[in-house]
């Protein structure tokens, strides 16, 4: 109430956020969800004050973290999403602050409702612009790709044209950060969502498949990356035989051998096995590809999977 009575006074908002932060840090604050709107509105009203933006963003991160610890998914409404977008645009050049803000957006977008609200206010072009500008920043790349994944996975088709423009920059992120498992995992997930949404053209299938294989090869131990990478490949193969041939004729090493290795590395991961089966199922829809897979003795791998997971 103290903050709401004096929106226009920056010092009141700053002091209010500091007091709220002291309660939240001590974990004695029972109104976590109810104060997010007042914090974001303070940030939107005083966008020129970087100190207030940083303190507000830090507090929102703390609130979201505590909510997740308590198993509460925060579905922030459209007005909050609009405030966050306003802040992104106002401070689009400040790399350090954007890094924190993008982490916040990633946490927010874990909620389907909040992700839909971010989509509605038109945040996708801003995310792509941030990625292009700060392609070198691992934290920003990881967070933005995770947000893109959440937004692209939505069933709303209103952003098809905007999402199509996300493919080059998402591929550039993966290419730049192939060795960084966290970033590569987020980028693979985003590419999977873009493939599901049909955002690729004929010329994209082969290079995207090759890039995903590279990501699997460089990060073999990351089960989630392997699973999502295989699901992304399956989506590509479903759309084009070119992607299936790219896996078979992989220049560095036959993709089929890589798939076998990944399965044996993750024997206790049913999600990985399921993704591999889905990928192989898409590949055998093409006669030429199926013949090649037989010559690679892929049925031996399938038999192993069947024995390992007899009840799945």
TrEMBL record:
Keyword field contains Zinc-finger = no
Keywords for this protein: ATP-binding, Kinase, Nucleotide-binding, Serine/threonine-protein kinase, Transferase
Q: Which residues form a coiled coil?
A: none
InterPro entries, alphabetized: ARM-like, ARM-type_fold, Armadillo
Q: Indicate the enzyme's highest-level EC class.
A: transferase
EC number from the UniProt entry: 2.7.11.1
Q: Which PANTHER family match?
A: SERINE/THREONINE PROTEIN KINASE, SERINE_THREONINE KINASE LIKE DOMAIN CONTAINING 1
Could you tell me what this protein is called?
non-specific serine/threonine protein kinase
**Which organism encodes this protein?**
Dicaeum eximium
Whichever gene encodes this chain, its name is: Stkld1_1
């Amino acid at each position: 109430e103290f903050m709401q009575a004096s929106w226009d006074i920056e010092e009141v908002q700053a002091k209010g956020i500091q007091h709220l932060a002291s309660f939240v840090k001590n974990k004695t604050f029972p109104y976590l969800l109810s104060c997010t709107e007042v914090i974001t509105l303070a940030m939107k009203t005083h966008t020129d004050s970087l100190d207030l933006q940083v303190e507000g963003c830090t507090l929102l991160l703390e609130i979201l973290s505590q909510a997740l610890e308590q198993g509460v998914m925060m579905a922030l409404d459209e007005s909050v999403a609009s405030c966050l977008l306003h802040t992104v645009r106002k401070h689009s050049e400040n790399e350090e602050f954007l890094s924190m803000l993008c982490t916040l957006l990633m946490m927010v977008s874990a909620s389907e409702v909040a992700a839909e609200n971010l989509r509605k206010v038109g945040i996708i072009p801003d995310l792509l612009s941030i990625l292009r500008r700060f392609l070198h920043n691992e934290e920003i790349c990881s967070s933005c790709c995770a947000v893109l994944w959440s937004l692209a996975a939505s069933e709303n088709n209103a952003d098809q044209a905007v999402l199509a423009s996300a493919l080059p920059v998402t591929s550039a992120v993966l290419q730049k950060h192939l060795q960084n498992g966290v970033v590569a995992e987020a980028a693979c997930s985003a590419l999977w969502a873009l493939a599901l949404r049909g955002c690729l053209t004929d010329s994209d299938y082969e290079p995207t498949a090759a890039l995903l294989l590279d990501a699997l090869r460089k990060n073999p131990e990351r089960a989630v990356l392997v699973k999502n990478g295989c699901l992304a490949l399956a989506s590509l193969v479903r759309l084009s035989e070119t992607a299936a041939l790219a896996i078979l004729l992989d220049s560095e090493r036959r993709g089929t051998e890589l798939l076998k290795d990944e399965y044996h590395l993750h024997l206790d991961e049913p999600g990985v096995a399921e993704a591999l089966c889905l990928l192989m199922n898409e590949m055998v829809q093409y006669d030429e590809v199926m013949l090649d897979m037989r010559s690679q003795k892929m049925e031996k791998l399938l038999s192993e999977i069947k024995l390992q997971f007899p009840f799945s």
